[in-house]
Amino acid sequence: MNSSLDSFKRIGISKWLVESLNAMRIDTPTDIQRACIPEILKGRDCIGGAKTGSGKTIAFAAPMLTKWSEDPSGMFGIVLTPTRELAMQIAEQFTALGSSMNIRVALVVGGESIVDQAITLQKKPHFIIATPGRLAHHIMNSGEDTVGGLSRVKFLVLDEADILLTNTFSSDLTTCIRRLPPKDKRQTLLFTATVTDQVQKLQIAPKPNGKPSLFSYQVESLDNVAIPSTLSIAYLLVPEHVKEAYLFQILASEKYLESTAIVFVNRTATAEILRRTLKHLDIKVASLHSQMAQQERTNSLHRFRANAARVLIATDVASRGLDIPQVQLVVNYDISANPDTFIHRAGRTARAGRHGDALCFVTQRDITRIEAIESRINTKMVEFTDVHDTAVIRKALNKVTAAKRESLMAMEKEGFGERRKTQARKKDGKGFRI
């Protein structure tokens, strides 16, 4: 066996799983895998922090699969994650890694048949990859035959834990965790690109009888790894009412005409308006947001990954964790109130040593947000000068305005609107005890 394979074997991974990793051309553990896998195999709870693309999924999947193969019975592990797309990606990785061992993986997310999911859960899959809302629905409504096995799981993973441990997910996450074995009867693994105060302060119960408890590892502080040297960051002062025209002019410019780009917005309606407007203007575009049916979301990702669309308009569903191919340009069409969100959005480009551009559209209302981002990343943005006001007005404004008008009329006719909240989220000022 060669030395690269031996390195995975040395940190305790089962031989069959080493061979599966080799078949996937994954030979050498990353820093977070090398640090966390042996400690998880010792039975310790774990908080693992590392930037997107550092191999966090295998850092928790490999030890879980190794332990499962020693006693392959019942519902063994649950992975909770904030978005359907990320859940689908993790489920695919578990399935691929465990294919030689007849592993059963259930994907439990919104947008899919509840009945089909309940039937799958009744068959006691070994691993459940889920979003908290849909798993909570099954716990509350699908009966003991469906969710009874949850009381015996050995592992709970919170992936993108900093997002899950916010008020948005608090009620559903609490419902899920209450159905699991108590803290001292399972291992709890938290992985995140941002180790927030809420993650650091998380209270994980010590193991009884002197067993090792919490292991915490962060590859580097986020401040050191957030902005790679290959990333160029710029801002463009834009009047609110002509943002679409500037975006089109940039995407159609000589510099970016062949580039793949992700355009981040804060609202689903904005994403839909931009998608339709750019499509009218013959830009190959796809979108990704929560108002889309699950199949449409999946198709959009496939189109973007296959270069059938070179521009993806997305809410922050796409800012975290997803395996998206090389992206040359990230446009912050709307500026997030959270500076860390900028870091995750910008992390979609300039990966693996490649160059990338991150551009911020700045309106009068965004100045304080830009200042907060610059303070967070300890970098001053430069002004973007490749598109000038007169060029935008002369070349783009009239046709973009007409395309936007058509888009808005079509959306109104189709009744497109924001999805209503189905339940109020409870606030928990004391944090989670998991």
TrEMBL record:
Residues 6-34 form the DEAD-box RNA helicase Q domain. Keywords: ATP-binding, Helicase, Hydrolase, Nucleotide-binding, Nucleus, Ribosome biogenesis, RNA-binding, rRNA processing. It comes from the Eukaryota. Its EC number is 3.6.4.13. It catalyses: ATP + H2O = ADP + phosphate + H(+). Residues 415-434 are annotated as: Disordered. It holds the Pfam family DEAD. The lineage of its organism: Eukaryota, Fungi, Dikarya, Ascomycota, Saccharomycotina. It is found in: Nucleus. Residues 249-393 form the Helicase C-terminal domain. It comes from Lachancea mirantina. SMART domains: DEXDc, HELICc. GO terms for cellular component: cytosol; nucleus. GO terms for molecular function: ATP binding; hydrolase activity; RNA binding; RNA helicase activity. GO terms for biological process: rRNA processing. A motif (Q motif) lies at residues 6-34. This is RNA helicase. Residues 37-213 form the Helicase ATP-binding domain. Its main location: nucleus.
